[in-house]
Amino acid sequence: MPTSGIWPNSEQNIVLTGFMGTGKSSVARELAALLGCGVIELDAEIEKNAGISIAEIFARHGEQRFREMETGAAKKAAGKRGLIISTGGGVVLRAENMEALRSSGVVFCLTAAPETILKRTGGNRERPLLQTPDPLGKIRQLLDARAPYYRTSCDHMIDTEDKTPKEVAQAQQLAGQLVAHAANLNVTAQRQGERLAEARRALALVLPPEMTQAD
Fold first, then answer.
1. Fewer C-beta neighbours within 10 Å, C or N terminus of the chain?
2. What is the SS3 assignment for 94?
């Protein structure tokens, strides 16, 4: 049952990012059920607009074209309010994507160990970046390359190891409501950054240490 509260009417979104296989889509569905709001899956939006799968976009047009489409989808989603936005793992590679998403939401990065990611994604032929003889090595390589982007462009890191999507969603529900509450306390636009900072500090006080890690 969705919880009652202010989130569907909030001016803020909850944005989920992180490497493939960290549970973004599953957590997004749990959050939507908990908060009673809608979900935007950026990859699904890209596929709908292109009329072909992500794997086909990579095969026909290359990663650069996919990233351009991803930027368009991210900016469009950022123009909406009160939603859960689930992104692809590479959305952090372009600063303009994260600037747009952070302008209207709080960003959570979901994390997991390389071995866990491989277990969750193994055998999935729709993951074009992992179609290689050594997928675990590729995962480690990509994680190392993206780690600085995740650290600098996300508000909070949540480890999904040994946690169900519902457990992760409940932590993010609490965080999201704190941010939304802070954003609605005052309407002066110039104080928005201060309000969000206050909410994020409050988050650190109420979430268990193992569920969140500040930048």
1. N
2. coil
